[in-house]
What we know:
The protein has helices spanning 6-26, 43-59, 74-86, 105-111, 123-130, 139-150, 170-178, 198-202, 254-257, 271-290; strands at residues 2-3, 33-39, 62-68, 92-95, 159-163, 187-191, 207-210, 227-231, 235-238, 246-249, 261-264. The chain is an alpha/beta fold.
Amino acid sequence: xxxxDGKKTSNDIKDEIAVKVQELKAAGKKTPHLAxxxxxxxxxSLTYVNAKVKACERVGFxxxxxxxxxxxxxxxxxxxxxxxNKSTEVDGFIVQLPLPAHIDEHKVTLAISPYKDVxxxxxxxxxxxxxxxxTFLPATPYGIVQLLDRYDIETSxxxxxxxxxxxxxxxxxxxxxxxxxxVGNCTVTLTHSRTKNLKDITKEADIIIVALGKAEFLTxxxxxxxxxxxxxxxxxxxxxxxKSGFRLLxxxxxxxxxxxxxxxxxxxxxxGPMTIASLMMNTLQAIENRN
Length: 291
C-alpha cells in the first residue's frame, strides 16, 4: 500500500510555483496577488483561510485577507466583490464558504468575475471545464488530478466510482475523470445518497473518490483488493485524549480499508493540502492570463 502524500506533493508544487514567481519578479513583472474574503468567525473556515495566506507567503505571492462581520448584508458583500473584480492589484480571489444563512451563495458565486475566480466555481469556468477548454478548475478536484498524476496512477480504461455529487467536488470530479486526458479516460459512475446497491458498485471499482462528509463511510467490505482510494471527507469528532479536544476522520475507515489498497490518501494530509496548492496554481494562471 502506497500513501498518496498530499502534504509532500503540495509542497513540491509550491516550490515549483515559487521559482516561477521569482522569474516574474526578476523580469520586472507583477507579483501574483490572491485575496480571500471570510464572513463571520467559523473556526474551520478561519483555519483554512489562514493556511491559504501562509501558502501565499511561501510561494512569494502578495495576499490580502478580508474579514467581514457575520452581520454584513448581502448587498454589502456583493459591493466588496465588485470592488475586488475591478481592482488592478488583485489577480484572483475567493469568498470562503459556507456563508451566513441570509446570504445567497449562488448570487455571490455569480458576482465573482470568471477571470478572477480561482476557486473555479463560476458557471462560465465550470462550462469551460465540461467542454475541456482552458479554465480555472475547481480547486479540490484539480488537486486530486494533480495527486494522481504525480504518483503515476494509471486511470485510462479504469472503473472509477465517485461517491457524492456536490458541485464543489463530486460532480466536477466525475467530469474530469472521464475526460480524454492523461488523468482521465475512466468509465465513471457517479453515486450519491439515492444510489441503490452501492456496495455492489464500489466493489467493482478500480478507483474510488469519496466526498460525502460522513465519517468512516467507506468500509473494507465495500472495496476490492488493489483499489485506489481518494478520501475527500474531513469530520471533527470529539476526543478528550487529544490536546485540541477532537480528532479528524475522513469518509474512509482508513485502518481497515488501507490494507486492501494499492494507493490511498490519508486524512489529514491528503486532499486538503492539494486543494491549497491548486488555488496557488490557479492564481499563477490568472496573472499569466493577464500578461
